[in-house]
């Protein structure tokens, strides 16, 4: 398509006799030609991109020329005609490319020059110079960068969408596994009837009803969450639209106005800062006085609490003393009664004679001696009775084969002795 590079600076391998070239020189020229071909392919791609972006109708003749070139015969008698046709096609293509480059330059310099008609572009040179190539290449790079930026945005949105879909699939898988596990536990394992060796339909229906209820609850939660997200999205969209409108309506004068307002606000802020420092100093003094008064109040409160506690303690002591005084009065009255009784007893007391006391003492001694003698006799009788009881038991054990009458009599005697 584009042959300006070969015509301008590249050397053809036909300029040198192939028989005189060495292998290294031949390889070097072949590599050089391959490099030139790669460069020409890149230049052709850039030119095609620019032409298709600016005016796709210019590529109609080029495509027809390519189709015609592919259909050309390879006979030697038609080489001259094909060469002339290729030269004519090349001239048309160079004219079109020069017109495209002139159009791009006119678009870039539209702010500094007047409108230029496309028919007035000079066609003296049929080649594209280096500056035009750089200009076309920069335009193509900008266009490619713009497309890449748009593709990145689309990729980000698609990746976010795919991640959301993957998360939703994970949640669906988890819910499905939980439902399957609960189904296996409640229906297949617990609902299995060993007598009929079947699963009753009631168990299945109950499980499906409960599962549908839980699913409805989850759907309600998801609907609520979706509605909240939609409201948030609408709010964010409205704020973004408002910001876009503000960005469109803003002018440099507005920025200057805002800058002046910011400067005035900064000055006012400095004044307010100074006032704030003064207020902080005053507040510090006030806080110091407040802390001093708080300490004094706490000391007074502590002293007051001590006095109140002492007052309560003294009231308790007075109540206790009153109770003790009442008890002491009662004891005094009781002791006074005892004193009166003692006085009466003392007045009515009669001291007996010594002979009477000795006689009473002798009677007491005789009575104590009789008690001891009776206790000794009782002990002797108990010993004899126990010995007799043992002998009777021995007799009972020896005479078990005798009649019931004798046994009853003996048992009666034993009971009496017991």
Automatic annotation (TrEMBL):
CCDC113/CCDC96 coiled-coil domain span: 214-382
GO BP field: cilium assembly
Main location: other
Matching Pfam families: CCDC113_CCDC96_CC
Superkingdom: Eukaryota
Keyword Transport: no
InterPro entries in alphabetical order: CC_CF, CCDC113/CCDC96_CC
Protein name, per record: Cilia- and flagella-associated protein 263
């Amino acid at each position: 398509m584009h042959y300006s590079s070969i015509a301008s600076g590249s050397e053809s391998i036909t300029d040198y006799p192939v028989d005189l070239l060495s292998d290294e020189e031949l390889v070097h020229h072949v590599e050089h030609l391959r490099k030139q071909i790669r460069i020409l392919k890149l230049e052709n791609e850039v030119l095609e991109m620019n032409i298709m972006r600016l005016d796709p109708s210019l590529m109609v003749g080029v495509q027809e020329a390519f189709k015609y070139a592919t259909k050309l015969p390879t006979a030697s008698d038609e080489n001259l005609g094909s060469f002339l046709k290729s030269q004519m096609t090349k001239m048309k293509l160079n004219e079109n490319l020069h017109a495209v480059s002139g159009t791009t330059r006119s678009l870039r310099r539209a702010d500094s020059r007047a409108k230029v008609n496309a028919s007035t572009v000079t066609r003296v040179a049929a080649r594209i110079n280096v500056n035009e190539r750089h200009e076309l290449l920069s335009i193509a790079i900008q266009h490619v960068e713009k497309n890449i930026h748009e593709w990145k945005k689309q990729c980000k949105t698609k990746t976010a969408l795919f991640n959301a879909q993957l998360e939703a699939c994970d949640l669906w898988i988890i819910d499905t596994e939980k439902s399957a596990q609960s189904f296996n536990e409640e229906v297949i394992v617990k609902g299995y009837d060993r007598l009929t060796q079947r699963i009753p339909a009631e168990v299945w229906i109950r499980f499906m009803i409960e599962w549908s209820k839980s699913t409805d609850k989850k759907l309600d939660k998801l609907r609520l969450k979706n509605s909240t997200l939609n409201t948030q999205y609408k709010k964010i969209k409205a704020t973004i639209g408002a910001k876009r409108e503000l960005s469109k309506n803003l002018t440099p004068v507005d920025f200057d106005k805002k800058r002046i307002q910011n400067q005035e606000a900064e000055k006012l802020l400095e004044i307010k800062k100074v006032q704030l420092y003064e207020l902080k100093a005053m507040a510090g003094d006030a806080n110091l006085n407040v802390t001093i008064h708080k300490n004094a109040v706490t000391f007074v409160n502590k002293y007051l609490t001590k006095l109140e506690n002492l007052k309560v303690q003294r009231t308790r002591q007075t109540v206790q003393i009153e109770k003790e005084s009442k008890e002491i009065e009662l004891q005094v009255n009781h002791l006074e009664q005892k004193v009166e009784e003692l006085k009466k007893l003392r007045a009515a007391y009669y001291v007996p004679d010594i002979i009477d006391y000795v006689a009473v003492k002798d009677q007491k001694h005789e009575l104590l001696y009789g008690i001891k003698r009776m206790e000794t006799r009782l002990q002797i009788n108990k010993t004899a009775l126990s010995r007799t009881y043992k002998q009777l038991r021995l007799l009972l054990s020896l005479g078990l084969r005798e009649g019931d009458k004798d046994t009853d009599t003996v048992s009666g005697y034993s009971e009496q002795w017991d």
